[in-house]
Amino acid sequence: MLNGFSAASQQKWPMKKTIMLYTGIFLALIVAIYSYFWINGISFIWQSDGFTQHYLLFKDYAEILKNFLRHPLEGIPMWDWTNGLGADMIQSYGYYVIGDPFAYLGVFFPEHLMEFAFHFLILLRVYCIGLAFLFFARKIGLYADGGLFGSIVYTFTFYVILNVTRHPFFLTPMIFLPLLCLGMEKMLRNESNRLFILVVFISAVSNFYFFYMLTLLVFIYALVRYFYMNGFISFKHLFQYVWRALYSYVIGLLLSAVVLVPIIWGFLHSSREASEFAGGLSIYPLQYYIVMVRNLFIPDSYLWTVMGFASVTILILPLFITRRKWFSYLPWILSVFLVMLLLPAFGSIMNGMSGPFNRWSFAIPLFLGLAAGRLYDHRFDLRKNDLKMMGFSLAIFLLVAVLERKVSPIRSVMFAPILCAAGMWLLLIGANTRESLTTKRKKMVSLGLFLLLSLNLVINAMDYYYPSGQNTVETLLDYGTADQTYEQTFDGAENVIPQVDRDVFRMGLTAKDRDIRNHLIYLDRMGMTSYLSITNGYVAEFSRELESGAFQLIQPVRNGFDDRRIINHLLGVRYIVTPVENENYLPEGYQVIHRTTGEHPHLVAETQEAYPFAYANETYLSTEDFEKLNPVEKDAFLSYGVVVDEKETDVSQLQPFDQDLGVKELPFDVIVEDSSLDTVGNNKVRVKDREGSFELSVKNQQELENAEIYVHLEGLHYHPEQTDSIAREKTSYTANVAFGQRNKSIFQSDELSFSTYMFRDKMLFNLGYQEKVDPDEKFVITFDEPGLYELDNITIYALPKDPEYQAKVAEKKEHQLQLTTFENDRIEGTIDQQQPAILTTSIPYGDGWKATVNGKKVDTIKTNIGFVGIPLTAGHSEVVLTYRTPFLLTGLALTVIGLLLFIANERYWKQKKITL
């Protein structure tokens, strides 16, 4: 009992037979749960992230690997021009597929079976979850039958059911956790540390975000196990174990460095930002704790506290008290997890010091599965008091279910787990109140427990997926339609646009194309938009500085940059593709050249004013002075020159900018006629109902004509109406500005939204170019949520049409870099300059880009807040830009060191024993 539940039980495992039984049960449950999908032609691909991220990146990366296997000398590209404005491959894909061992199996499937491969590998992950559990359960002393029972509890817990269709790669840490605990268990027993090192390595390269959680979880496990096994003997004894665990961990970490170091570097320089610790919460809202109790056994989640555990847990909980010795350390570690669930601070710590989200809750079913296995091992050893306590526990949860239904409408499915647990209880009563049971009756009881457990888990899954329950199948694509949906993104309109060669340009969108995310990766086109967890922080800085309303932390540049003409030109957007109903949102100067006639007709618009991919600028404005401009003036300046940091760049031979940018601020009157909106005074308005609007009437309407018009809201703060004393009021809302034929909205996400929260105290709305304006036309500003809105200032800007604009564009084209090579990782070109200048590009800035001019190394500089620039002297310049993922070689060197240490560990240290 010292090292586990029963050390002798390890010898009683017929492992092959157990795995065969597990495989049979697994397949039966998969058929029971997912046959509805197959019969109705429904895929596992979620219409949101599943379609735009998970399947697309899996398919794209598999194709990259296949191409590498066909042409290994070509290598794997480190930079991808179809990912947003261009992005590092390892940093972008590292969160999803780079280190995922299952993703590499995609190379064995032909092109036409890639969607099947995606589904097959999801189910293979699920299968491996239970397999990993079995090996761990065997080590800590469960019997084979108990291990099998617990494996089903763990494998089909709601966290798994949720992420089969939501985030498939979230399943992988559920494989690694029991293996890490198994490796730690071996070290605690003075056995080899090899397994621990290898699982640290593979989990670190698989996903750094979950690796962080796994690290904390396994060391929590180690501490609980150490003190349970040994108590406190001495600091020396404890230090010996801690030291061995740490150096083993470091070796695994070093082995992963070739992937992990570049990814961490990318994360630290990404568009992510540190949010307030624990979302500013000291405790969760009361609703969280109520929902946590309700969700214990039904498939639901709140702030990523994912429960929906097997209902056999109801019977286990009282045994933690009456039969504590049976369960060894499990009550202690589950108590630690309970405390962690109760306080937002722990959620934040586990989430990388960010919002208080409990994505780590996948760990709880592992230890509940072990406890369930232990109960199953003792299913014929229960006393009357044990059975009474089980009945009492059932009664409590039944009362909770009844009260919950009285308080709020809830599906009857909440009673199903209790009924299944009650069935198990009755079987256990029958098995333990008779003086003796025949072998046949014991088999019937054992089978009955398995069947009731399976029924419970299948009902939970059906409730989550099926139309009779939460109907999440409605959020999934039909099977076999993903590739066709990608291909029909623009109804084939993109086919009239030439492919990028040495004439480099980008494809753009309009502000209304909100659903276009990573589609251009699939279509192999250079564009602007991307939707990934790790994106370039310098591009995000540019987007924020220009106050793009479309900006999100994981989508820094998207949707045509709010249809702002100059920014589209700056980024080289020569063509815009959009549905025909969005024609009014085309920036001025983009002319329609093609329309499709399909079911969802699209148009292609072209401009001759897009700036070259790289061109020389002799006129500059310092970053400090640029930041003093209003956002429309910043737009205007970028048509004149380049923004550089005077502290980092020699500007002595450049021309400082000193012209008037021509941006006008237009006076207006505020009109409030909406009965659902009150003015409170001191620049505050209160929305009483669902929406509240007010109007702005420009005093001289003629100033709106022949100009691009913007509305700027500053000093925004929203205070929601408190309508529910239990629930926390959401702080999200949408502000909308309408004028003429254009209607623009900007969303302020909730403080506890997982990956999109950023506080917007400013909002800039581009209402487009206005040629003629109705004298009675007014701006209508609408806030969609009830509550109090503070608003310090409203400004209407007009940027009149610049008669010299085409001449500026022509000058840029005259001074462009004449490209001779344009590849993923290499760009070459020539340029002739009479004066020193800054070569200005639309390449997202990053340390990976290196430059030579006329064969000599030249330091790249950051221009226009977020892009690569190169100082040029007068005369002829042959420019070469090459890209290598930052810290890739450093990571490789660390991996070699890790490999040497691993070899040394295997040779000298693996048999080393820890003694008192």
What is the compact description of this entry?
The chain is an alpha+beta fold. Helices cover 42% and strands 18% of the residues. A hairpin with a 6-residue loop joins strand 9 (591-595) and strand 10 (602-606).
Task: Provide a descriptive summary of the structure in words.
The chain is of the alpha+beta class. It is 42% helix and 18% strand. It contains 28 helices and 35 strands. The strands form 10 sheets. The chain has a 5-stranded antiparallel β-sheet with strand order 16-19-25-22-23, with no helix packed on it. Strands 28-29-35-31-32 form a 5-stranded antiparallel β-sheet, with no helix packed on it. Helix 10 (235-255) packs across helix 28 (888-909) and helix 11 (257-268) crosses helix 28 (888-909). The protein starts with 14 loop residues before the first helix and ends in a 7-residue tail after the last helix.
- Rg: 31 Å
Counting helices, strands and paired strands, the structural category is alpha+beta
In total, the number of strands is 35
State the end-to-end distance.
Answer: 20 Å
Number of helices: 28
Uncertain runs with pLDDT below 50, 5 residues or more?
Answer: none
Keywords: Membrane, Transmembrane, Transmembrane helix
Transmembrane segments: 19-39, 116-135, 142-162, 196-224, 244-265, 303-322, 329-351, 357-375, 387-403, 415-433, 445-466, 887-904
Pfam families: YfhO
